[in-house]
Design brief:
Elements lengths: L3 H5 L6 H17 L3 E2 H7 L5 H16 L3 E4 L2 E4 L20 H6 L5 H5 L84 H23 L4 H20 L3
Antiparallel strand pairs: 1-3, 2-3
Helix pairs in contact: 2-4, 7-8
Length: 247
Amino acid sequence: MTTSRDIDNRIRLSKWQAKVLTGVVSEHRQTRRGVPIMILQAYCNARATAEQDRVLNALVELRRLELVVVTGEAVWPSPGWMERVHPETATDDAPTNHSAADNLPPVRPKSRDTLRPAVGGAPKPVTRPAQPKGCDACASPPGQHHAPECPAVNAYQAGRIPEAPEVAGDGAGQALPAIEYPASVERIHPEEGVTIPPELFNRCAAMHLTLLEQAREDYAQGNQDAGQELRWLIETGEQLLAAGGGA
């Protein structure tokens, strides 16, 4: 049997503390899980920053009184909380027991941040266009021809160093459209008695290098459609090497 003396010895909560504790118990009864702090603030209709701080301050005090358990960003009611709380609340936000209020440590921003829910997440990475690179062997800048003595290229690869492709404002690469040729290189292979002029061969090789570099950059930026184009360009490069005869 509960006497009036037992009731007087119970903890008397302030209005905000009682509101927060009621929200924790009510939400926990419905979900049987911990109550997220953001849900608890919505339950208390805490829209302004000052009201949200009152909810957090009340949680700090409820946790100190061992009436709730805070795990991460979820709050659980402590077992036996009902037997320890006075049925009546105080008329203001301060506890009626002034000695307890004097001993209560101030809630500093650091302690509030341990209860404040994280808003948003990690910032999304910003995709930037790839920086154009020159030739490491002959130190030729982007958009310029390789040096004649460049050891990194042979007669097939000699040509202009491809410049950086045009990139949209958000940094996403665009796949090149499919290219159809009326005839393949095999139709003018030297074995059939037709010789490719060196100037035409060098132009084809330089154009192929440009398309190949653009396709590689598109694929590296996550454009999956560029994978099929890469395979087609690699096969075309092998045909160019065979047609050039290694000259």
